[in-house]
Write a structure and sequence with these properties.
Layout lengths: L2 H11 L4 H24 L2 H32 L3 H5 L2 H16 L8 H9 L14 H11 L1 H25 L9 H12 L12 H33 L33
Length: 268
C-alpha cells in the first residue's frame, strides 16, 4: 500500500495511536457542534436571527465531513467494505442532505428540504464508533435476546389480562370502553408513565391500579438485571482483535489482515 494511504488509514482508523486519538477527539467535537447547529437552526426564532450564520457553519461542517468520508474511502484497501458498512452509510447520510438542498432552490420545496435536513442528525450515530463500551452492550443484548423476548411475551400476557379485567370492572363510564383501551391503560400504568387520560373510579379498580403500579417497579428491574449479567459475562471473555475498518470482531490474535475487508490489523 502507498505510504501516504497507510499513514492516512492509521490516523483515521487507528484509535490506539496518538495521531488517531487526536483525530477522533477533533471529529467528536465537530460532530457535537454540527448537531447543536442543526438543533438550534430548527428553532424558528434562532433561524430568523442567525439563519445565515447557521448556513455557513453547516457548509463548513459538511465540507469537513465530506473530506473525512473521501479520505476513508481512499485509505482502505477495499473501499466498498466501508461504503456499504453501517458507519459508511451513516457518514453518507450526514452530508447528503446539504448537497441535495442545492438541487431544490426556491421556497416552493422548502418543506422537502427541511425533511432532508433532519437526516443530518444521523451524525450523532458517528459517535457510537468511539465508544468501546458499546461492544460489550451489543454483545450483551444479543446474548440476552431470548430472555428479553420471553420477558416481553410475559409482560404482553399480563397487560392483556389486566386490560380485560379493567374493562370488566370499570366499563365504559370509567373510560374503559374496549379491551384495547384497557390494555393501553395497563401498559401506561405498568411502565409507571401515568398519562392520566384514563383512570379508574371504582374502589376495586383503584385497588387493581395500585397493585399494577407496584408491580411495574419490579418489572423494570428484570431486563436491567438480564442485560447487566450478560455484560459481566462478556467482559470476562478473552479479548480478540477487532478490525477498525469494517468492525469485524473475533479475529484471531495472530492474524495480520482482516478476512472481510483485507485491511492490515492494528494491534494494541
Amino acid at each position: 500500500m502507498n505510504p501516504i494511504r497507510e499513514k492516512i488509514k492509521i490516523i483515521i482508523f487507528g484509535t490506539d495511536t496518538k495521531a488517531g486519538k487526536i483525530f477522533d477527539l477533533l471529529l467528536i467535537i465537530t460532530i457535537v457542534l454540527s448537531i447543536i447547529t442543526v438543533m438550534l437552526d430548527s428553532v424558528d426564532d434562532y433561524h430568523l436571527r442567525y439563519g445565515a450564520l447557521f448556513n455557513i457553519a453547516e457548509w463548513i461542517f459538511t465540507i469537513l465531513f465530506t473530506i473525512e468520508y473521501l479520505l476513508r474511502i481512499y485509505s482502505i484497501r477495499r473501499p466498498l467494505s466501508y461504503i456499504f458498512s453501517f458507519f459508511g452509510i451513516i457518514d453518507l447520510l450526514a452530508v447528503l442532505p446539504t448537497y441535495i438542498s442545492l438541487l431544490f432552490p426556491g421556497t416552493q420545496v422548502f418543506s422537502i428540504i427541511r425533511v432532508l435536513r433532519v437526516l443530518r442528525i444521523f451524525r450523532v450515530l458517528k459517535l457510537v464508533q468511539f465508544m468501546g463500551e458499546a461492544d460489550f452492550l451489543k454483545k450483551a443484548m444479543i446474548a440476552s435476546r431470548r430472555k428479553i423476548f420471553v420477558f416481553i411475551f410475559a409482560v404482553m400476557n399480563i397487560v392483556i389480562i389486566l386490560g380485560s379485567i379493567m374493562y370488566l370492572v370499570e366499563g365504559e363510564p370509567g373510560g374503559f370502553d374496549s379491551i384495547p383501551r384497557g390494555i393501553y391503560w395497563a401498559i401506561v400504568t405498568l411502565t409507571t408513565v401515568g398519562y392520566g387520560d384514563i383512570s379508574p373510579t371504582t374502589n376495586l379498580g383503584q385497588a387493581i391500579a395500585a397493585v399494577v403500579m407496584i408491580m411495574g417497579y419490579g418489572l423494570i428491574a428484570v431486563p436491567t438485571g438480564i442485560v447487566t449479567s450478560e455484560i459481566t459475562f462478556a467482559a470476562k471473555k478473552i479479548k480478540r482483535i477487532k478490525c477498525v475498518v469494517c468492525n469485524k470482531e473475533d479475529i484471531e490474535h495472530n492474524a495480520k489482515f482482516c478476512s472481510d475487508c483485507g485491511s492490515k490489523l492494528i494491534k494494541s
